[in-house]
Design a protein that fits this description.
The chain is α+β, with helices and mostly antiparallel strands. The chain folds into two domains: 196 residues, Ribosomal Protein S5, domain 2 (2-Layer Sandwich); 177 residues, Alpha-Beta Plaits. Helix content is 40%, strand content 22%. Strands 1, 2, 3, 4, 5, 6, 7 and 12 form an eight-stranded mixed β-sheet that branches. A four-stranded antiparallel β-sheet has the order 9-10-8-11. The protein is globular and about 65 Å long.
Length: 389
């Protein structure tokens, strides 16, 4: 993969292969815990084998040249002029990272960067976070800035929040950086501490289904949900001693839920508090290998995401309905922010082909769209890749 990209790199940027370095950052899928990261909760994501490749080389001037093979587009900009978004294109993610990096280390030279990914775009598998993390990791290595992985994660999150304008939490960037092969990450988003949970699901496996309904988070209801949660937090803090919505226990929230003056903020808070409890239980179930309990919690999670957080859509509901009608499918839920994107499904291996056929057919009839399927291979996080590997 990277050797072929190296050929393309020299075709696009010229010169020989001297100085080209190659990096990879994975996307992520969330087993359970949507919208908890920016509300101070626990989440349970894992890094994927799919992600973003970046080939980079330093220049002799202070120009930044970015090329994406996925979008078949490019941008060229002086480092001194990276201050704000350039339209609404893909390059704002690496530009945002460079903008943050220049606050820490002032590069004495520019860069040529070639991006290529095998993640579906705008599908809720964190293609944006993988671009941010791989860019930050590459700059850290080339500039020898000596930032820790956690600092790379925080820098990447700031790029998305402040530069791109999406008020995401830390989960996506964290999973891309800290992924571990065959493990999920049980992450406390408030403290940014984590532990790994080995994933052994026996005869069952996780399959991602892409609705192929694209959504742009900065123009979707995502930021509206963020703002509603901030309003809910103000109400909750007048009633309970909490720093985040996810700090409230079930009994605490139940005792004050009727005091919420706005129905939307009450419903968002309900999802967050109950989802927090589900994630903690799911982590224990996964660690014990209790697949039935994990499946129950995943299904409950989707119902809450749909009914209380109102982050589902017709396409997601159609996929979930079709999936759960297949014998051998224990769970199906939206993974990611919602409003389109992907589902994560827990399916008996013996039912995989029947699952694909039925879900694809039913979804095509109902929506006119073609679902895509990806098996979940949990892999390590961001890294440099030597050529010929």
């Amino acid at each position: 993969m990277t050797d072929k990209l190296k050929e393309i790199f020299t075709e696009r940027f010229g010169g020989d292969e001297q100085g080209i370095r190659s990096f990879f950052a994975p996307g992520r899928v969330t087993l359970i815990g949507e919208h908890l990261d920016y509300n101070g909760g626990f989440v349970l994501p894992c890094a994927l084998s799919l992600g973003t490749y970046l080939l980079a080389r330093r220049r002799n001037d202070k120009m930044l040249k970015l090329v994406s093979l996925n979008y078949n587009s490019s941008i060229e900009i002086p480092l001194s002029e990276i201050h704000s978004k350039e339209g609404s294109d893909w390059w704002n993610y690496p530009l945002g990272v460079m903008n943050e990096f220049q606050k820490i280390v002032a590069p004495e030279f520019g860069f040529e960067m070639l991006f290529s990914g095998d993640l579906p775009i705008s599908a809720g598998l964190s293609s944006s976070a993988s671009i941010e993390v791989v860019t930050a990791f590459a700059l850290n290595e080339i500039l020898n800035a000596k930032l820790s992985l956690k600092e790379i994660v925080s820098l990447s999150k700031r790029a998305e929040n402040d530069f791109v304008g999406v008020q995401c939490g830390i989960m996506d960037q964290y999973a891309s950086a800290f992924g571990k092969k065959d493990h999920a990450i049980f992450l406390n988003c408030a403290t940014e501490e984590h532990e790994y949970i080995s994933v052994n699901t026996g005869q069952y496996e996780f399959i991602i289904v892409n609705t192929n309904k694209e959504r742009q988070l900065e123009s979707s209801d995502f930021n509206n949900r963020y703002n509603e949660c901030q309003q809910a937090l103000k109400t909750m803090q007048r009633l309970l001693p909490v720093n985040f919505l996810a700090d409230a226990t079930l009994s605490q929230f139940d005792s004050v839920e009727h005091f919420f003056p706005e129905e939307n903020s009450r419903r968002r808070a309900h999802h967050i508090v109950y989802e927090q409890a589900r994630v903690k239980s799911a982590a224990k179930s996964l660690a014990k290998g209790d697949i039935n309990e994990l499946a129950f919690l995943m299904n409950e999670s989707y119902a809450s995401l749909r009914d209380y957080y109102e982050a589902s859509c017709f396409e997601l509901e159609t996929i979930v309905s079709a999936a759960l009608s297949v014998d051998g499918c224990l769970a199906s839920r939206a993974s990611g922010a919602g409003f389109g994107g992907c589902t994560i499904n827990l399916i008996n291996r013996e039912s995989k082909e029947k699952f694909r056929e039925k879900v694809f057919s039913y979804y095509k009839i109902k929506t006119g769209l073609k679902a895509e399927f990806y098996e979940v291979n949990m892999e390590d996080g961001v890294r440099e890749i030597r050529f010929n590997e």
